[in-house]
From TrEMBL:
<dbReference type="Pfam" id="PF02538">
    <property type="entry name" value="Hydantoinase_B"/>
</dbReference>
<dbReference type="GO" id="GO:0006749">
    <property type="term" value="P:glutathione metabolic process"/>
</dbReference>
<feature type="domain" description="Hydantoinase B/oxoprolinase">
    <location>
        <begin position="9"/>
        <end position="528"/>
    </location>
</feature>
<dbReference type="InterPro" id="IPR003692">
    <property type="entry name" value="Hydantoinase_B"/>
</dbReference>
<protein>
    <submittedName>
        <fullName>N-methylhydantoinase B</fullName>
    </submittedName>
</protein>
<dbReference type="GO" id="GO:0005829">
    <property type="term" value="C:cytosol"/>
</dbReference>
<dbReference type="InterPro" id="IPR045079">
    <property type="entry name" value="Oxoprolinase-like"/>
</dbReference>
<dbReference type="GO" id="GO:0017168">
    <property type="term" value="F:5-oxoprolinase (ATP-hydrolyzing) activity"/>
</dbReference>
Length: 578
């Protein structure tokens, strides 16, 4: 083997690693330059590099599966409208088309061709969530996508290095936060430009003229490794269903998974139909989270790219909630779509005889609050002089218990976004978070306990009411335990005055009231009576579970400070064993 050969296997591997570093720098540039808290604080974004056919070669580790895996399909839509042969240096393309991007109007996808010595060698793409896109705002209440905001088809953001100011003016005129939104558009363009620069530097360093051989190496190796991992699983057909809250009626998510020598096929036939409200999912987002759920269990260490994704094939019948067609409302598609990894886990649990987590909260429990004239449905005189604001803060309940380990508390899985520090939104709005703490006893009991949810108490310093846009689930149908583990506790949204709020929809909070958001806990795994007594006692000392729950759920007699009555504990567990 000649390691000085620019295309030797060793150098190809080095270049592959370097390519991942390039897209990671691309993503970090987006975070550093981003204007909205969802980009800057939560990391709700994606970044990646593609070959000239639109195949994703590498993605940044930073980012969310919904953005990354749907962006992996989006670049081909750009190439269909703007063939690579027509692209020029300095061109930048964008869209927020939910069916050709990442599933709703709040996400912009940018694509930038990379030129080296006058020849196009690759494309960089990036996506982020903007704080506002006009219309009704980030809510489940719309009855069609036309109500949900400004819809921008695939088009040029810049041509020959010159930004389309008309486009920028249209965006500015249609959103509530023009500085943040337009700032994020320029951040997307900037991060792609940095990716282009770093790729050219890499190609110069390794003395290669194109990415043809490297791209083929990446895709072939990734596909081969994925098929080898799938080959270790018992082949067959496995069906699993999960019921979630929906908006006005429950939704059934039904999947049939076929595992065979050529990969994994998932069909969502039997799933509920399209909703009248904005919780529908374009199929690109269904593919994104379903394939991510499979990869988490089957091949978590194989890099995510076109090669590894190609062996996981997802289909959903048209006009089901997982393949909603335009003009269905889709603003809160994540409420439904982020449940899909749990459905994949349910299928894989049968194939693997265990080895998968219990169900978790899965969907995000974000605080999305709006204020100012017209923000609430009350008397307009109450808000005519109110401070105008639109803030989104990412928060999460507990994840399901994992084989051999407890679930993670207040952790966003599967999205992977970070919680936004409460001080960030308090600095730019009159919103105040009076309490934010773990929700005791929320994690499902089990040999391995479900992760805890959290409780937030939120009010305003303004002399006017504000609106809460709720898009929460797991209120009527909490995360289920597995293999004898108990369910996690259900979520709940109330006012301090005692009124129970709906889990979805825009609702008004009086300036004298506070909203209390109690997030679900993850399901437990295994028989709770098998959990070590010392672990139960430690949970009580930490405040994760109460002494009452320790006795009731685990058969452990323990005081609030964690001291165990060994005799009573032995009696309780003996009785349970009978």
């Amino acid at each position: 083997m000649n390691i000085n050969d620019p295309l030797s296997p060793i150098r190809l591997q080095l270049m592959w690693d370097r390519l991942i570093a390039v897209v990671e720098e691309q993503a970090l540039a987006l975070i550093r330059t981003g204007f909205s808290t969802s980009t800057r604080e939560a990391g709700d974004l994606s970044a990646g590099v593609f070959d000239l056919d639109g195949a994703m070669l590498a993605q940044a580790v930073t980012g969310t599966p919904g953005h990354i895996n749907s962006m992996a399909r989006a670049v081909r839509h750009f190439l269909d409208k703007f063939p690579a042969t027509t692209m020029k240096e300095g061109d930048i393309f964008l869209t927020n088309d939910p069916w050709k991007g990442t599933g709703h109007l709040h996400d912009f996808t940018f694509v930038t061709p990379t030129f080296r010595r006058g020849k196009m060698v690759a494309l960089f793409a990036s996506t982020c969530h903007v704080v506002d896109i006009g219309g009704r705002g980030m809510t489940t209440d719309a009855r069609s996508v036309f109500e949900e905001g400004l819809y921008i088809p695939l088009m040029r953001f810049a041509h020959g290095g010159k930004v389309d100011q008309t486009l920028v003016d249209i965006v500015s005129a249609n959103v509530r936060e023009p500085v943040q939104v337009v700032g994020d558009l320029y951040s997307l363009a900037t991060c792609n430009e940095i990716g282009c620069r770093r790729l050219i530097e890499m190609m110069d360093e390794f003395a290669i003229d194109d990415l043809g051989r490297l791209g083929k190496h990446i895709l072939e190796k990734s596909k081969q490794a994925s098929l080898e991992a799938i080959g270790k699983i018992k082949p067959g057909e496995y069906t699993f269903s999960m019921r979630i809250d929906g908006y006005d009626k429950p939704i059934d998510l039904v999947a049939t998974m076929k595992i065979g020598p050529t990969g994994i096929d998932v069909d969502f036939a039997g799933t509920s139909g399209v909703s009248a409200y904005g919780i529908n999912v374009p199929v690109c987002y269904t593919e994104a989270y379903s394939s991510f759920g499979v990869k988490c269990i089957v091949a978590p260490k194989v890099p995510n790219n076109e090669g590894s994704l190609s062996v996981i094939r997802i289909t959903a019948p048209e006009d089901t909630i997982l393949n909603a067609k335009k003009p269905a409302p889709v603003a809160a598609r994540h409420v439904t779509g982020q449940m899909l990894p749990d459905v994949m886990f349910g299928c894989l649990h049968q194939a693997l005889g265990g080895q998968v987590p219990a169900e978790g909260t899965s969907c995000l429990w974000n605080l999305f609050a709006l204020g100012g004239p017209g923000a609430t449905d009350g008397d307009p005189a109450e808000t005519v002089h109110a401070q105008q604001f639109s803030v989104m803060s990412f928060h999460a309940g507990g994840t399901g218990a994992r084989p051999g380990r407890d679930g993670l508390s207040a952790t966003a899985f599967p999205s992977g976004v970070r919680n936004v520090p409460i001080e960030v939104n308090e600095a730019v709005s009159p919103i105040v978070v009076w309490k934010k703490e773990y929700r005791q006893d929320s994690g499902g009991a089990g040999e391995f306990r479900g992760g805890l949810g959290q409780i937030m108490e939120v009010g305003t310093l303004d002399k006017a009411p504000f609106a809460l846009s709720a898009y929460y689930d797991r209120i009527d149908h909490p995360p289920r335990g597995r293999d004898g583990g108990h369910d996690g506790i259900a979520g709940r949204v109330t006012l301090s005055s005692g009124k129970v709020l709906r889990g979805k929809g825009l609702q008004t909070v009086s300036q004298k009231d506070r909203v209390i958001i109690a997030m679900p806990g993850g399901g437990g795994l295994g028989d709770p009576r098998k959990r070590p007594v010392a672990a139960v006692a430690d949970d009580v000392r930490q405040g994760f579970i109460s002494a009452e729950a320790a006795r009731r759920e685990y058969g452990v007699a323990v005081t609030d400070d964690g001291r165990v009555d060994e005799g009573e504990t032995a009696r309780l567990r003996a009785v349970a064993a009978e």
